[in-house]
């Protein structure tokens, strides 16, 4: 049997990861594919916590700028947090149809649809084999869901953050725009900050650096990559 090198992980999924080929919203086939991969690693005994973005529905400050809306940054960020809750409920529904016990925990109080995030309760859910879906970011404006992933990773004592993206690692420039983009197989935290590599915001990288939490960046679109990452196969880019 394959042996994971990580016992407990934070899986960071952007909202865009859920929209598949759709221009916005949630693509059901993509959601099922992601859920199948999550079940695959849960079946190996790995504790799985998931932090979701909401960019497929509303991207806070960027949406307001693109649409010419004169909206306060805090209001826009709270709207983005609510979008992550929608994504979390959709993911929970598919995971539970696959037979995985799941809990959605939110940093914003909304007891009719999700549990409040309480660190000790989240850890207990993981110990009982439940998948924990963490939504609403940190519950504060001005902080990204990447920072939420780093923060929750520290709180639940995760071994690694697996950041699923649309490309197969970190490059010196956008590989979707530049054919000569060079991929990094491994990076130090300080290299990420010095080179201003924007796969994750600086606050999140700094938090991981201060607490020695490694990050693996990989392509979600290649089926089976989540399992490869937790088995320690050389995929994507490792930051530590």
Please summarize what this structure is.
By secondary structure, the protein is α/β, with parallel strands linked by helices. It has nine helices and eleven strands.
What would your notes on this structure say?
The structure is a single chain. The protein is an alpha/beta fold. The chain has a single domain, classed as Carbamate kinase. The chain is built from nine helices and eleven strands. The strands form two sheets. It has a nine-stranded mixed sheet with strand order 4-3-5-2-1-6-10-11-9, sandwiched between helices. α2 crosses α4 and α6 (145-155) packs parallel to α8 (202-211). The model has no long low-confidence stretch (mean pLDDT 92).
Give a topology summary.
Elements: E1 8-13, H1 16-19, H2 28-42, E2 47-52, H3 60-66, H4 73-97, E3 102-106, E4 115-116, H5 119-127, E5 131-135, H6 145-155, E6 160-165, E7 170-171, E8 183-184, E9 186-187, H7 189-194, H8 202-211, E10 215-219, H9 225-230, E11 237-239
Helix pairs in contact: 2-4, 3-4, 6-8
Question: What descriptors fit this protein?
Answer:
240 residues, alpha/beta, Carbamate kinase, nine-stranded mixed β-sheet, globular
CATH architecture: 3-Layer(aba) Sandwich
- As for the CATH topology, it is Carbamate kinase
Tertiary shape: globular
Counted by DSSP, the helix tally is 9
| Succession of helices and strands | EHHEHHEEHEHEEEEHHEHE
- CATH superfamily placement: Acetylglutamate kinase-like
Number-wise, the strands total: 11
Domain module tally? 1
Q: Based on helices, strands and strand pairing, what is the structural class?
A: alpha/beta
Instruction: Give helix % range.
Output: 25-40%
CATH class: Alpha Beta
* Terminal Cα span: 27 Å
């Amino acid at each position: 049997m394959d042996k994971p090198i990580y016992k407990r992980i934070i899986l960071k999924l952007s909202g865009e990861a859920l929209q598949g080929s759709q221009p916005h919203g949630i693509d059901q086939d993509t959601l099922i594919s992601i859920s199948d991969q999550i079940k695959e690693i849960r079946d190996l005994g790995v504790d799985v916590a998931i932090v979701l973005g909401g960019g497929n529905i509303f991207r806070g400050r960027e949406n307001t700028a693109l649409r010419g809306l004169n909206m306060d940054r805090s209001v826009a960020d709270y709207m983005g947090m609510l979008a992550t809750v929608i994504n979390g409920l959709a993911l929970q529904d598919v995971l539970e149809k696959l037979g995985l016990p799941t809990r959605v925990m939110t940093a914003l109080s909304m007891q009719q649809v999700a549990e409040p995030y309480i660190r000790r309760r989240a850890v207990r859910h993981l110990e009982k084999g439940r998948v924990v879906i963490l939504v609403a970011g940190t519950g504060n404006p001005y902080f990204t869901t990447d920072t939420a992933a780093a923060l929750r990773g520290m709180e639940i004592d995760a071994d690694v953050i697996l950041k699923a993206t649309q490309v197969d690692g970190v490059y010196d420039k956008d590989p979707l725009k530049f054919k000569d983009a060079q991929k990094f197989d491994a990076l130090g935290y300080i290299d990420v900050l010095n080179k201003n590599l924007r796969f994750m915001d600086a606050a999140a990288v700094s938090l991981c650096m201060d607490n020695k939490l490694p990050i693996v960046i990989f392509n979600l679109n290649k089926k089976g990559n989540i399992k490869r990452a937790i088995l320690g196969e050389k995929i994507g880019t490792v930051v530590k």
